[in-house]
Amino acid sequence: MTRHELRGGYRPPWGGSLAVNYRYLKYSGMQEPYFYTTAGQRREDLITRFEAPLTATTTAYGLLNQSLAENHIAEGIIGLRYQPNCWSVDLELRRYFDEQSIMVIFNLDTLGEFFRGRKQGI
Asked: Taken in order 93, 79, 73, 38, is the CA torsion positive or negative?
């Protein structure tokens, strides 16, 4: 067996979500759609995600990607999203291997829907 994955998730009635994903790749060079290869080393990850509503317009979220094969945190994200209407702003702290960053992300939902609709109509 060269690849296996086990996923689980929970959505409580009050909103939000929790997801856990265990992934094993015999060769790290395997990329979606997971064609067979013998490139790379063994990869084994445990990935957890959560999203929790704090108020009607504010949500906390996070992700933790723990590499079990190399015993280190490959990626970690914690963020706070404010979404009053058709726009949102996120404050996100991110650690990716040895890089650390703080980001402020602005999203305009209506503008994205406009361009997505035009692309489909072409």
From this structure: negative
